Structure formats: C-alpha cells, structure tokens
Request: fold
Amino acid sequence: MTERSEANPGARWASPAMQDHLRRRHRAERRFRRAGAIAIGFALLGLATLLGSVVANGWSAFRTTEIRLDVSFDPALFAGLAEAPPGERDALLAGADYAALVRNALRALFPAIEGRQELRELTGLVSTGAREELRAMVTADPALIGATRALWLPADDEVDLYRKGRISRGVTAGDRHLSDAQLAWIDELAASGRVRATFASGFFTSGDSRDPERAGIWGAVVGSFLTLVVTLTLVFPLGVSAAVYLEEFAPKNRLTDLIEVNINNLAAVPSIVFGLLGLAVFLGFFGLPRSAPLVGGLTLALMTLPTVIITARVAIQAVPPSIREAARGLGASPLQVVSHHVLPLAMPGILTGTIIGMARALGETAPLLMIGMVAFVVDVPHGIRDAATALPVQIFLWADSAERAFVEKTSGAILVLLGFLIAMNGTAIWLRRRFEKRW
Amino acid sequence: MSVLVLLAAIAVLGAGGFALARGRALAAAADGAARLHSLPAYYGWYGALWSALPGIAVIALWLAVSPSLLPSLALAPGIGVPEDPAQRELFWNDVENLARGNFVAEHTDDAVRITAQRYVALRGRALTGALALTVLLGLAGGAIALRGIRPTLAARVHVERFLRGVLMLSSTLAILVTIGIVLSLVFETLRFFDVVSPREFLFGTEWSPQIALRADQVASSGSFGAVPIFVGTLLITAIAMLVAVPIGLLSAIHMTFYASVRARDVLKPLLEILAGVPTVVYGFFAALVVAPAVRDLGGAIGLSVASESALAAGLVMGIMIVPFISSLSDDAITAVPISLRDGSFGLGATRSETIRLVIIPAALPGIVGGFLLAVSRAIGETMIVVMAAGLAANLSFNPLDAVTTVTVQIVTLLTGDQEFDSAKTLAAFALGLTLFVVTLALNVAALRIVKRYREKYD
Reply:
C-alpha cells in the first residue's frame, strides 16, 4: 500500500493537493444542495404570493358596508295608489320613484346641501341596489307607506372600498371616484354611527350584476353545480364500464390497443380543444342551446373521461387475482365476479379518481368559454338548459371588469372556488386513507 | 322535459317486464319438474331489457331527429318568417322562448306567436307519437320475451352478453371522441382553407383577422398569417420552461436525495397544491400581481416593458408547470435502481456527483419525456395567457413585448357574438387543429422516447 501511495502521491489523502481537491468537491456538494433548496424556495414563494395576494384581496369580499338611513315612505310618491283598481296596484307599487325615497332620506341628514351636482354626489353614496330593496319591502308590505323606518341600506362600491381602506385620502381627487366632499360625508356618517360593516350575505345569494356591490356568486355556483351533475352522470358510468371492459374482458387485439392509445392521448389533449369539439358537435351539429350547463357538462365529461378511465383501471388492477379466482371457483360467472367482488373492492379507488376528475372539471374554464358560458347572466339558472355561467368563468369575467371593486369580488370568488376544491380533494384523500386496502 | 316523459315510460315498461318475466320463470319452475337455468332475477332482467330497449332506441331517434326536424316543419313560409338565415335564427330564438313560456321582448309579432303555437302543437304531437311507439314496441318486446321464457332458457347468458356489449361500447367512446375532435377540426379547417390558402396561414407574417361587419366595407378581408402567433406561443412556452425545468428538476432531486422524510411529507403536498390551483386563478394572479410587478421592475432599471409582457405570462405559467415537471422527474429518478446509486457511493462519489453523473444520465429519457409533456401542456394552456398576455399579434422575440398565443386567438375569435361560418370562427378551428396536431406529436414523441431509450436494468 505504502509503496503505491508513494508512487502516486496525488492519491495520498493527507497531501495538500488532495485535501484541496476534496474541499472543492465538498463545496460543489454544498452548492448543489443549496441550489435544490433555493428551487423549492422559489416554488413555495410562488405559491405563497399567489395565495397571499388572493387572500389579501379577497377576504374583505365577505364584508360589506351599509349606511343607516331614516327612510320615510312619503305617501306623495305613491300618489293614486288608493284609487287604483286592485289589478294595477302592483304595477304602481313597482313603478314608484324609490330613488327619491333614498334621496330624501339623505337630504334630511345633510340639509345644507344644494345644487344638482352635489345632490347627485350625495345620492351616489348609496348603492342603486337600495332602491330594489325598498321596492321589495313596499311590495311585500304596502302598509309601510306613510311610515318612517331606520334602515340599513347597502353603500356604493366605492364607499365600501373607502371604508375598507382600499382607497386612501392621500390619492389626488382625480385618481379616485369619490370626491373630497363625498369622503367628508362618509366620515361624518361614520362618526354618527350610521355606517357599519356587516357580513356580505348578498355575495353568496345573488347572481351577477354590473354593480360590484350587488354582484354575487350564487348564479355561478348553481351553474357549476348543474354542469358537474351532468358531467358526473355521464362520466362515472361510462368511465367505469370502459375501465371494467379494458381490465377484465378485453381481448388482446388491435382494437384494444387502439382504445388504449386513444385514452392516453386524449388525457393530454389541451382542454380548449375539447371546447372546440363541444362547439362544433353539440352546438353546431346537435343544435343544443348555447351557454347551457347541459352542453358544458357534456364537454367537460368528454374531457374528464380519460382521467376517470385511467384511475378506475388502476383501482381495478389493484384488486388481487386471487379474489377473482376464488369467486370463479365458487361458480360465479365472469360478470358476477366483477360486479360482486372486483367493483366493490375497487370502488374507493374509483371514487377517489372520480372526485379528483370532478375537481379538475370544476376548475376548468377554457372549454366553457368556447361553448358560450361567458354570457352575462343575471338570473340564477333553474335547469340544465338555461343560460348559465360557472364559477371559474365568473372569476374570469370579473377579472376582466374595469371597476376597482371587482378585484375584491374576483378574489373572494377565487377563495370560494379554492374552498370547494380543497373540500373535494380532502374527501378524496380521506376516502383513500379510510378505505384503501393493501393486499 | 320531453325526454323525461319517455324515460319515465321506459322505466315503467322495464319494471313491468322485470316483474312479469320473473314471475313467469318462477311459475314455470314451481311444479319442481324442471330447475331454472339461471337465478330468477336474471329472467326478470331478460324481460326488462326486451321491454325497455326499444324505448331507448326511440329516445335516441328522438334526440337525433327532433332538434332539426321540428323547427323546419314549424317554420313554414308564408306568415312572415324571415328568409335571411341570420334573421331566421333570431326569429327562431323568439319562438323557442315563447314556446317555453319565457318572457319575450314586447314587440312580439304575430308571426312569432303563430309559429310558436304551431311549434308547441307539433312538438306535442311528435311526443305523443314517440310515446306511443315506445309503449307499443316495449309491449311487443315484452311479449316476445315472455313467450320465450322457459326453465331451460339461459337468461343469465343472454343478459351478460348484452352487458358485455354495453361495456365494450362505452370503451370505444374514447375512439369516437378522438374521431369527433379530428373530424370537427378538419372539416372547419378545410372550409377555412377555401377562403385563406394554407400557405398564407402557415407562413404569412401578418395576423389581423378583422372581417368586415358589412360585405361592402373596404378592406373586408382580414389577413390570416399565423407566424406571429406561433412565435408568440413559442416565446411564452420557452420562458415557462426556463422557469419550470430548473425549479422542478432541482426540487425533485432535493426532495428525493436531501430532504428529510418529515420535510418531504410537508413539501410534497405543498407542491401538489400548486398543481391543483385552477388556471384561471393563475391568470388572475399574473394579470393583477406579476404583470405590474414586472413592468415596474423593468421601468425601475430603465427598460420599457409592455403591461402585458410575455415575461409575466411565461413566469406564471412556469410556476404552474413546476409540480408537473417535478413529479414526472421524481418518477424518472426513483425508477433508477438503487444499486446504481450504491455503486457510485461505494466508489467514493459525493451525493451531487452521483446525481449528476449517474442518476440523471440514467433517468434522462424519463426526464426528457416529462419535459416534452410539459411543453405540450404549456402550448395548450389557455387561461393564463388569455388573462395576462396580449391580443395584438406582434412578431417579436423580445420577452418584454406583448405577444399573443394560439389559445388566446382561439378564445378571442370565438367568444364574440358572430355567425358560425365567418372566416374568423373558421380560423379558430384551423388554429385548434394546429394546436391538436402539435400537442399530439409532442405526446407521442414523449412516449416514444421513454419507451425507446429507457435503459433496462437488472
């Protein structure tokens, strides 16, 4: 040993050259390790800024600002109601000037205000939705006419933003939508306890609107739900039967090979191509209604089908052959083996895959844009043939809107969407943990 | 609605067929002279299938025929139905709304009202006919099934053969979908190539698909040279891959070789969250946070950055693809046998040397395959670029410029309200076909590489 080391001094560990070499190698090792840590750090930083910006912008969407006004339901504004025949009363009630009610109530608070421009700015503090609320109240209970009530009415979206601190006074008046006078009035109202922040129930219960303070996600949630129902009723039976056939019955031939290649390729086709397919086939060829959850569900079903087939096949493969053999040995027919033994045992895995596929379908936007689910839909859809939009599409539409207040709405809707996705994926993980068997 | 009525009739027929057939089979075997070949329920299913299947055929016929046949019958000429196809479509919309009892614009004229009445009457008659057909055929089928039931009838074999047929049909759906995609894209693209030559589309450098609103307008033909779009797509994809490949690969390596088990248990799910975030959220993030940040940063160091720069969209798309790359490289790395690693360690190599000189070369086919799949994903990604990249087709390789992509153009060409046959909508299908072909080629190439070059160990 010693002789050889002397013949090749570089290999002696203690020699300075060798030590130096080793140090360099260790340095490279540390550098490499650090590079990996930095890469993970970057990915986590991306995740953190993504979620952070959504939460920072979106948490306040669940709160809204209201202004308390003493609304006196002036009989003069409902003139002619008493004489009107019963048939025309509803139309009269619906057609009354509710904007004047709000205006008068505000004027009573600020008697000093004169002039059209100032008055318009003053009434601009309260949302146009306040009229709708008053109309609904009076139509429901005409006895209100003549009375005076202290009511909490929704504020305008700009007022809401100001109260949430998203518009600062420091900005020059030209760069914000509220004038200095309006800001002063809001502060005055707030000082007298007439402004409050409350849970934004409207955000969860109303449909879309051009006014940010009246826009809600309920229509989109229902649209998404109807779409997913269509998708699920199609994709689950079809996907499972295809998987059963391919795993249990398919002979090894060219047709089976072709089917397998097709499934694998379809799984990687961009989602927008499925949208084009839906547009050409369901809308163009079959003439189904545009913007309907029916068509959206069909399109998403075609998109998620490969995913569901692939995961169902994996789950069926995981059932050990011994179970099949035992069942066959007891006289079960091939189909009985599958329906009595293989499918029940594979079901947790199949359900997990299906839920993950549904979660993907829920977050999908591009194919729905193709089949016209981007329409501005105010009404909450009632059936799968009604015009509707879906939650991610609603997010896309709001993100495109010019009003500053829609940023908050968009982020709020994203939080709701992420909540649904977390719930679905959590269920999938729970199912897998709870029912997964290892043989 | 109409389909629901038919379905209800079929359900009743099927239930009746089941009960009768099962009862008959039991009665036939009741004297004990003969044993039933199958379990009684199979005779029931046999009867149910015979009585329900004709109805299902009727439904299929109804779905295929009624959407086109009923309008053409109801839209009889003479009472003021517009001749112009576009007008006709609007007219038909009103008719359908009225027929469904919805609120229609107040200026509803008599033509619409009459047509709607005729349509409702026609539909009612057609539905009654379909229903009668369902019931008649179902009864006939049920009768045939009942006549055939005797103890020796192999009901289970019949039912199972039918079910296996259903299973096989549903597995061929995948082929049908592919055929559907190819046919619909190819047909529309061929029609597009009637208007615009394929050479102009594939090699032209001018893209401004402004089709005139009126036929007599000046400059009524837009130009459809798609090269700027392809370049823009490649630019954004390249930026995304520059972000995603190093981060994804390095984090996969770090998690497999360096991170403790506990750290990995935390880090892996966190990265998977990135994969589960919907793309529309990434798009919002790109447009709201990243694009302004990139612009401001560029402005601070004296660069002029477009507010919808390719860089911002590419960065965010890169982050989106990180978990994809990371999980695919993870698979490739863990597939390398442990003996190779141990051999390298045994020769005195450090961990990073082992990874760089042994593991990665051995895992390279898998990693390259994953890379190609990620490229295909980036090319087909839609929402991020729709929300954060530009609309104008600039032929530019500068990542600070605004460029547009194939998917952005498809969306903008198709989301407006326009007739189905204009060159604009057809152009979207041509772009879609290009997208489909390119992503398909990438996927096939990825699979080939993985299959062909994977080293066989042990």
Observations:
- Residues 218-435 of chain A form a domain with the MetI-like fold fold (CATH 1.10.3720.10).
- Residues 128 and 288 of chain A are 36 Å apart (CA to CA).
- Chain A has 18 helices and three strands.
